[in-house]
Amino acid sequence: MRTRFLSKCTNAEVEEYLQQNDLIFVPVGVTETHGALPLDAETVFAEALALKMAEATNGLVLHNLPYFFAGGTVMARGTIKMSVKDGMSYLETIAKSLLKQGFRRQVYVTCHGPAYLTVSGMIRDFFEETKVPILYIDMVKAFDSVKDLSYSFMERFNDMSIGAYEILGRLEDVPINVSESHSVTYDMQNALNGMNKNPGNELAKYAMQSGAIGSYFDKPSDHLPTPQITSDHHREELAQSGILAIEEFIEKLDMPTIVELLRKTDEYTQTDSLQKYREWL
């Protein structure tokens, strides 16, 4: 295909695609403080993963969704604040439109810890209303599902974030030689010391991230230490390391099998479980 991004297609190209496939990936992002990386780092990460997933399965990608619930980073003046409720409503409207357009298999992708608060609820409500199963792939959980990766999610998280910019042709957006400040730290212990000031962190372990108790970071630099990028060459090295990690993950995740299981789940729902559900009613 000329492009995998829905918004870059012509209408004729979308209609031609829908004659032979019904699959779309929807990366759901966030705009928030992210150390020395741009505010859209976790949006770009999700978009790059969705693109790789689409390439592996002949899917399209609906991107440019960067404004959703941020969580504890709203003290940063670069973070865009969106409530969980408003984000769910907006995303549900998009999901219903995509279904009417012909995209019956929808896969939502996030790389932001608290994103499940928005996406999981929408996925379930959408099913209850339309009786069409759509899928959510939360990268925090999905990485745990792949047992034979050569790295852990957090070991390569920053590399993959930078690699995502390269995949989307935006590596120049990642700045070089950013000084430490109120917003940026390169010291993990410094960030942990800031986070540990909040007694709510002791309560956060009783549910998934941001789902146990509401709290904020003390200062933007407490959110996440990012690598100190010292040169164009160093940035390119980190990006290539991240791309290799992303490609390994996508290959071992086995997206063709996942999207086929989504099709089979829909088939089972329509021919088996819905019939029994209606009989029960």
Break the fold down into its secondary structure elements and pairings.
Blueprint: H1 11-18, E1 23-27, H2 41-57, E2 60-61, H3 84-101, E3 105-110, H4 116-130, E4 135-138, H5 139-145, H6 153-167, H7 188-195, H8 232-253, H9 255-280
Describe it for me?
- The chain is of the alpha/beta class.
- It has a single domain, classed as 3-Layer(aba) Sandwich (Rossmann fold).
- The protein has nine helices and four strands.
- The protein has helices spanning 11-18, 41-57, 84-101, 116-130, 139-145, 153-167, 188-195, 232-253, 255-280; strands spanning 23-27, 60-61, 105-110, 135-138.
- The chain has a four-stranded parallel β-sheet, sandwiched between helices.
- Helix 2 (41-57) crosses helix 6.
- The radius of gyration is 20 Å and the shape is globular.
- The termini are far apart.
- The model has no long low-confidence stretch (mean pLDDT 95).
Based on the model shown, name its key terms.
alpha/beta; four-stranded parallel sheet; 9 helices; 4 strands; 48% helix; globular
